[in-house]
Amino acid sequence: MLRSWRAEPAARIKVKKIGRLRFDSYPLLLYLSVLMQRYFVGTSGWQYPEWLGKFYPEKLRKEEMLRYYAERFNSVEVNYTFNRLPSEKVLNAWTAQTPKGFRFTLKAHNAITHSRGLSPGDILEKFLDVTKMLGPRHGLILFQFPPWLQKDMRAITAFLKRVPDGTRAAFEFRHSSWFCDELYERLNKKNLALCAAESERLTTPPIITANYEYYRLRLVHYTDKEIAEYARRIRNGSSKEIYVYFKHEEAGTGPILASKLNKKLKK
After folding, report:
1. Which of 12, 126, 149, 154 is the most buried (most CB within 10 A)?
2. Helix 153-161 to helix 181-189 angle, to the nearest 10 degrees?
3. pLDDT digits (tens, 9 = 90+) for 223-240
4. 8 Å CB contact between 187 and 209
């Protein structure tokens, strides 16, 4: 069943009898699901000289940035893979600098999502093989499609057939024509997430299509009130895992906002 952010009020939930005890079924399940939730919060990328003196110590070497970042956040969205397929040596270097429990989300190569539309060659399978090299540190895959790519249900259906069952991935569509029930049902059938992206140009409808969620918060500034509202929405969901990434930019606000959200989620 597809879900949106708006949870049904507890007062309207039918009381369910469990043995001799009676519980409001939805609040009980929601409480249990929150106990099992895992949050992965970070930024899109980590190696930015502009962050020196803002997030990183002023004299921190770029080779030390990932280790410093991973001591403060438990996940990162990797843009590197949008332009090149990393070697096993590169992936091993990344994992060596991060603790157990850290998750890398890899953005799909542009030859999969941009230059060939929805008909990539065997690079799709090659990319999927690369993600497996991360082992337990592999989080999700982000398939981000360009703003000019309009809805084509036949093409996306064929594309999804090539994505193996059990793949954990988020799909970001940046043209409003894609936002329809037909797409949501296709993603839901494969347990693939609709990426909830918020930017100055477009905001994705808050539809949940998988048992995990993926958020890309692209604004440079969020107020404390807005961060608190995102934390409330995330905690009130019933997904097992939630991934949230803030924008990378020269101002260095991304890691500051990610830290604020982390603190709210841990309260």
Report:
1. 149
2. 10
3. 999 999 999 988 888 798
4. yes
